[in-house]
Amino acid sequence: MAGTLYRKLFIYFLVVIVLSLVSVSLFSYRKSSAELDAMVQHQMSQMINNAAYQTDLYLKIYERAFVALLQGDDIRHLLEMPFDGDAYEFHQYRKKIKEESINPIFIRNPEIAAVYAISQNSHATYYYNEVEGKQFKTADIHNQVAFFLKHTTPDGKVSILNSSILDNKNDQLFTLVRQVRGYTHPETMGILALEIRAAELSALWKGMELGDNGYFFIVDAQGRFIYHPDKQKLGTLVQEDLAQKVYDSNLSSFEKMDGNVLRMYTVKKSAYSGWSLVVSMPVQDLRKPISSIRTSTLFVGLFTFIVALFLAYRFGKSITDPIKVLKNGMQETGKGQWAIIPIPERKDEIVELMVRYNVMVNRLSELVDKVYQVELNNQEIELERHKAVIQSLKLQINPHFLYNTLETIVCYAFIQNSKEISEIVDALAHMLRYSVGTNLEETKVANELKHLLHYLVILRHRVNPEFEIDVAIKPEYLLRDVVCLTLQPLVENIFQHAFADGVEDYHFIRIDAGEGDGFFWMSVEDNGAGITADKLAELNEKLSANRLGDENDGKKDGIGLLNVHRRIQMVFGETYGLRIESEAERGTKIMLIFPLSIPSLKEDFKTLK
């Protein structure tokens, strides 16, 4: 019987946990899909970035070829020659350039199809590498140099053009060209150009894994294909709408229909060549993993949801039916009718609980009267205990003051027969009468001030020079209810600790009162020695702990402050009491916090009885 319900709960909760985990996977589908989309786009962006980097790096190699060609001065001399110059000298320069510069470049870079230099004087020299050469007329040369000068800059920066001076049907060529200054003239004298086979660059991009339906292509600034897997498209114009989207994008993606297929395009524009490198893949291929996740998640989620509903129903019925019986029995018990509930035939922990409930009802019916009587007795005992504690705390006021006062009276009586003795004794009598004349803690602010006045009468004969206290309490606060014997212990504490080295002319004590934040407060402020940070922290800790004072070397530490604080809390609760602010050598301010409205303790005692 003891383990039956436990096994049920274990199995049911195990199923619930498994179902919860499956359900979490359903809710995480959207986040997984979003992350997968982001990952695909990141991979495509990474591929296109790598392709752009490799392409730019490859093209910059040819920029070094220009440097190699221009290291000597032969090309500059050739470009400066006038059109009708010495033909022999021209051929000598042409031969020297080929042997010393062009042939090594062709050997190192077989992908270079042609190298040529054309001057503005219509001088031109052409070198071809395994392509069919061509001779040009003067008009053709003039048009060529005008075209290249138009598409280059005087600063010598290399320009990349999707054009060629050759009618090469086998290879797609593009041209790297730059302006060249003369040997003796700082102005541009002509151009130097390299024509490169685009097919050689395709080896850089064939390693990109784009699946069966993905491909990569390059478009130049004029909207023509520099590279495309379909060689028939090389040199042709890109569709206008596609070209516009390519130009508007840089390291970003967009989707566009290509026939009946929706494709995603990721574009990277090369700052060096001005080309746009594009990766294109069908959206369906990119989101195929997401579709598989969605289908699997929906199927598993639906199945587990149905199973969870069935198990939850069975589990709920097995628990709630007996609990309903217990609930009805408890409702009858709450009405004072000690109802005995029926016990089912099965045996498990809930049935055992029902049996024990019946036993409990029988015992409660027998003990309730006894408990009621004991509670009444406890209330009376607790009330008496509080009275005793209050009286005990009241009697713990520092007796040293009374001893010192009596000693002063003896001194006066011994020295002279003076009226001071009568004054001291009269003030002391009023103080003692006020301290022990009532069993209640409730008094008025005016009574506390009067008690403090009697204390000052006695103190005047003990302290030299005479000392007056600044009382700034408004008249409307004089009849407010407070706890008795709260001001005098705080003022006495000032003379004992704040003015421990004697009272000086600049010393003051100020008493004030007011309202704020739902409290009525009184404050006692001095400009004496103050309290160090460590001592203040220790004192606040004692106030928080509600201790009446610890024994230190046989002396009670701060019993006056702690006594006042604890008596206020015993009357009004833990919210009220003392709040202390102090700095060493800058004085201390003690706030006494009371509720705005104080109920009469006599009425409270009557209520408790």
UniProtKB/TrEMBL annotation:
Top-level lineage group: Bacteria
Entry's Gene Ontology molecular function annotations: kinase activity
Subcellular localization, as worded in the UniProt entry: Cell membrane
Keyword Phosphoprotein carried by entry: yes
Record-linked SUPFAM superfamilies: ATPase domain of HSP90 chaperone/DNA topoisomerase II/histidine kinase, HAMP domain-like
Domain HAMP: 317-369
Pfam annotation, one family: His_kinase
InterPro entries in the cross-refs: Bact_2-comp_sensor_kinase, dCache_1, HAMP_dom, HATPase_C_sf, HATPase_dom, Sig_transdc_His_kin_internal
Keywords, sorted A to Z: Cell membrane, Kinase, Membrane, Phosphoprotein, Transferase, Transmembrane, Transmembrane helix
Transmembrane feature ranges: 6-29, 297-316
Topology class, membrane: Multi-pass membrane protein
Main location as per UniProt: membrane
Record's protein name: Histidine kinase
